[in-house]
Amino acid sequence: MGGELVQIREAEVADLGAIFEIYNHEVENTVSTFDTEPRDPDADADWLAVREARYPVLVALRAGELLGWGAISQWSPRGAYARTAEVSVYVDGRHRNQGVGRELLEALIERAPAGGIAVLLARVAGDNPASIALHESLGFSLIGVQRRSGEKFGRVLDVALLDLHLDDP
Prior knowledge:
By secondary structure, this protein is α+β, with helices and mostly antiparallel strands. The protein has one domain: Gcn5-related N-acetyltransferase (GNAT) (Aminopeptidase). The chain is globular and about 35 Å long.
C-alpha cells in the first residue's frame, strides 16, 4: 500500500505468533492447507529450530508488520527425493492482491538452489485459480490433479500439483 516496500527476510522465533496467526486462520477457515489442528507458538516453538538450513522460512514485512510467510519444506524423507522440495506461501487476508505472495514465492525460488533444490513442487487445494495463476506466472507448470484426495469442512477436495524445474537447461 502506498508504495511502501516489502522486506523479505528469514523468519525468527519472535515471528512465530504472527506466522501461526496467519496459518491458523487458514487451518480453521479455508482449504488452503489440509492441516486441521491450529499451531501454538508455545507448543510449536521448535518448528523453526528443527528445520534444516536448506528449508528456509521467510517472512514479508512492511513498516514492521508481518504480512505473510512462505517456506520450502522437505517433499519426502526418501533420499532420492533430496533434490525436490515443496513450497508454501500464506498471506494475511488484509494484504492479499498486493504482490506480497509473489514477492515471497520469488524469494523462495531464488533461495532454493543454494540448498541443493532443483525441483519445487506446489500443491494447491480446492478451487484456487488465483494461486495457480501466481505459480504459473513464475514458471510453475500444472502436472496433474490429485482427485478427491482430501476432505475438509465436509467438502471432498481435489489438489492441483505444480512443478518448477530450476535446473532445466
